[in-house]
Design a protein that fits this description.
heterodimer; A: 144 residues; 2 domains; 68% helix; B: mainly alpha
Chain lengths: 144, 231
């Protein structure tokens, strides 16, 4: 933990803000909280609604997935910008944080494509999956 | 620019004592730790997603696995999909809000305000851990462990994906350990604030740094929640 030898000297308060900045940031936080709550509720309701009503109607799964991913990105951006104060940092510092995250985009795409490729390897040329053996049918099943 | 002026600039920046990008060492290092931890969690979640995709027929539907409230007494109510974990998400979001308020009160050098907001943050953190304990214990009793699945969590093709437990417990376990660490850090913060250490020091930057960690924990939960419960 931070036990620097200058503790006996009073250090500068970098976070200091004026009364009006304080009020403004406080209201920003409450607005963001309400936004996050609404987004979470919408996500959960849509997930349940999709499974109960839309999937039987034939709506494809990727619509739900894309919607949920976009909503979660919205939440992440708001939590980082307002709660973690990133919006108020210097531009250079914002870049040192956000640019590495772009590396993750290719990582996610690459591994998802990999998974789908393995899915194809598991099928024969007619697109059929192999029938599970009797051993496989009981593997990993907990018997209570 | 003359050699003398350039030398003056060099002396100012490279001899130290100047904060790059107006951020303190501690805050920058916390951020870079959080970025590395993000990569760890993304690696976990991506490995789950890609393995699930290799044979999507035997994996269970999330709304079936997590369809009851795992607290003894309330677990007789069936078909409440995702209610409990949504509650857990709100618990963490509210704890993040009180943490931000603590940072703001610290910025205004308001010791009592900091304590007033750290207490609910710690309380909600402990509540989250309690909920996670109930969730785990309910699932383990049902037959889901690191290498088994109960028969009623079978996938579309009638097989159980016994790997689900390994992913679920490892990833939520890692996240839970991070929450526990955060609760301990917040307790440390509370004690130091109550003792008046930060008043003497002149700033509450420690609250901000631990606040960053706490928001990271909240964000990871948003994505764990997404990966396991909504997809």
């Amino acid at each position: 933990m931070e036990h620097n030898h200058e503790e006996h000297i009073k250090q500068e308060n970098h976070l200091a803000m004026t009364e009006s900045e304080y009020k403004h940031h406080k209201s920003d936080v409450w607005k963001t909280t309400i936004l996050l709550s609404i987004v979470t509720i919408v996500e959960v309701l849509f997930a349940i609604f999709y499974e109960k009503s839309l999937a039987p109607m034939g709506w494809p799964l990727w619509i739900l997935r894309v919607f949920l991913i976009v909503m979660s990105l919205v939440k992440a951006v708001y939590i980082m910008a307002v709660f973690m104060h990133v919006k108020h940092e210097k531009k250079a510092m914002i870049l040192t944080i956000t640019v590495p995250f772009t590396l993750l985009i290719w990582m996610i795409i690459a591994f998802l494509l990999d998974g789908e490729s393995w899915n194809n390897y598991n099928k024969n040329r007619f697109g059929e999956k192999p029938n599970p053996s009797v051993i496989e049918q009981h593997k990993g099943v907990s018997h209570h | 620019m003359s050699a003398q002026a350039a030398n003056m600039d060099a002396k100012v920046s490279w001899n130290g004592g100047v904060e790059p990008m107006k951020a303190s060492y501690g805050k920058l290092m916390m951020w870079y730790f959080l970025i590395s931890d993000t990569f760890t969690f993304v690696a976990f979640l991506v490995s789950y997603a890609s393995l699930r995709m290799t044979n999507s027929d035997s994996w269970p539907q999330a709304s079936k696995v997590f369809s009851s409230i795992p607290i003894p007494g309330l677990d007789q109510i069936k078909d409440m999909p995702l209610v409990f974990v949504s509650f857990m998400t709100f618990v963490l979001i509210i704890s993040s809000v009180t943490m931000v308020r603590a940072v703001q009160e610290g910025a205004m050098m308001n010791r009592k305000g900091v304590i007033k907001n750290l207490l609910p943050t710690i309380g909600f953190g402990i509540l989250f851990l309690l909920c996670q304990y109930f969730e785990w214990s309910h699932l383990i009793h049902h037959g889901m462990t690191m290498n088994t699945m109960p028969a009623d969590f079978a996938g579309q093709n009638g097989l159980v994906a016994y790997q689900f437990g390994a992913f679920f417990f490892t990833i939520t376990g890692f996240h839970g350990m991070h929450v526990l660490g955060g609760v301990i850090l917040n307790l440390y913060l509370l004690i130091r604030t109550a003792k008046g250490d930060f008043e003497r020091l002149g700033h509450y930057e420690m609250v901000e740094k631990i606040g960053l960690y706490w928001h990271f924990v909240d964000l990871v939960w948003v994505y764990v929640f997404l990966a396991f419960y909504l997809m």
